[in-house]
Amino acid sequence: MTGTIHRTVLRLEALVARRFSLKRTPRVIEPFIGYASEDVLFVQGRVHSKLRDSETRFGQSRIANLRQMLGMFLTSEVPGAEVHCAGQTVRADEEGYFRVDIPRDGAQGWLLFDASLPGIEGQFACPVFAPPPGDPPMVISDIDDTIMKTGAYSLLKNLWTSLTGNPLTRQVFPDGAVLLDRLNREQECPVFYVSSSPWNLFRFLEAVFDRNAVVPGPMFLRDLGLDEAKFVTDGHGDHKGRAIDTILGANPSRDAILIGDTGQEDAKVYLDASERHGDRIRAVILRTPGASIERDSLRNIEALRQRGVLTLCGRSFAGFHETLTAYLSADDPPPDQGA
């Protein structure tokens, strides 16, 4: 069944590509926020023949929002495009994604690398975040219904909110933005994001974060590729689990605080991460966006606590910073965590 659907979608993609002339000479790079390991800087992005207009205006209609949102998925990626960066040449994959691996050589902080395309004037600035040396734990946070109000726990609400909003109307949870800001400024915790949202929404999410002063950081979004290895079978938990493994592997000297919500599978994903990485998962913070917590999530939360992981849950993150920092600084067993 999956194979039939896959072949059908491939035919549809080919028809759309011919209709809208998506396979064109490379013209523009969409830079993502790259990350770093101890030895390597990873410059990331995607090559398009063009980037659709994503500028929004106050009072813009929901029809206009819908049109712009759908436009984000009618991508004009350029497979196999050559990308020049830092003296290297790489080729984009079949969906236009590329990565350039650059020796770190002690570089740290926010860095910019110029990337270019053959025959195209100008360069494209690609940011990379390389946390400075240190041992404060890093924060790995979900986005939907954790930092940004979405309604992902309800399919219909999620679709309506996602398709009819824009960066000027989408809202974040103030307590989530404050928690990340305090952990980043006061405890010097670098921040990373993992989400099942597709890379098509990167610029949208970046605009929402910028407008609402959410701490920036590398995003590990989902490739909704149409090859057999990704189509349908690559689920929410699979992607997030691999992203967490990648971030922990790139930062072996740091432990992690995982932040998410109970509306999807975050409690299970974070429990699995704790089982794989042991004491490196120092704490888990979960928002409860729905009316109640599902039974499976409750079991996974209890399992995390049984493993000795500080696990805090609530409709708001208010007060969690104080509990979390007291626990991390005292290095004592987790306090009574309640329900």
TrEMBL record:
Lineage top rank: taxon: Bacteria
GO molecular function: phosphatidate phosphatase activity
Residues annotated as transmembrane: none
One Pfam family in the UniProt entry: APP1_cat
Phosphatidate phosphatase APP1 catalytic domain mapped to chain residues: 139-287
The name this protein goes by in its record: DUF2183 domain-containing protein
Species: Kangsaoukella pontilimi
